[in-house]
Amino acid sequence: MKLYDYYRSSASYRVRIALHLKGLSYDAVPISLIDGEHQGDDYRHTNPNQRVPSLENEHGPLGQSLAIIEYLNEIHPDPKLLPSDPWQKAQCRSLAMLIACDIHPLNNLQVLNYLNTELGVNQNQKMVWYHHWIERGFSAFEQLLMQRTTPTDFCCGDQPTLADLCLIPQIYNARRFNFDLDPFPLINDIDRTCQLLPAFQLAHPDHPIKE
């Protein structure tokens, strides 16, 4: 498999965690979002949406991180990244989508660049925007964690799931942009637990070696 990847992309980060949790080898193909490689003709052929990540195998390329992760979970079911119980599975997907659909799209690099270049938003205003959506999303996420009937070390159950794979990269980005995480103790607890696992360490953007 090939993973077209940008090391700081939180969507790519999610997929790297999944690959390492599954113990799957892959060839990393770096695509620089800073240098505009994602907008080049070569990559547009792989992913017409010009986003990362893309996973390519014998079937062809596949975009969208959640689709990639669920595909990996289908073809390599151990360890499971979604609970077996239908209600718990839906709750796990709900937490994951709170990050992937409600927070991340408003704060990704293309949106932040658009605010600067097209709307004339200054750096301070851009940070106000960024912090607003993180605070709103993390407040909801923390409350949902508080409502769990059986608190655990992870978002859903006793092992990492799709929800954790979405949460941890968003925490990394929040710290990069100096967002105060102190008001979110349960989120911080999950982050500390996940950071002890080799799969999360190997997938981390600051890890020097990518497969």
UniProtKB/TrEMBL annotation:
* UniProt cross-references to InterPro entries, sorted A to Z: Glutathione-S-Trfase_C-like, Glutathione-S-Trfase_C_sf, Glutathione_S-Trfase, Glutathione_S-Trfase_N, GST_Zeta, GST_Zeta_C, GST_Zeta_N, Thioredoxin-like_sf
The record places domain GST C-terminal at 85-211
Query: Pfam families this protein is in?
Result: GST_C_2, GST_N_3
Gene3D superfamilies, per the entry: 1.20.1050.10, Glutaredoxin
Keyword Lipid biosynthesis annotated: no
**Record family assignment:** Belongs to the GST superfamily. Zeta family.
The name this protein carries in UniProt is Maleylacetoacetate isomerase
**Organism in which the protein naturally occurs:** Photobacterium sanguinicancri
Q: Which gene encodes it?
A: maiA
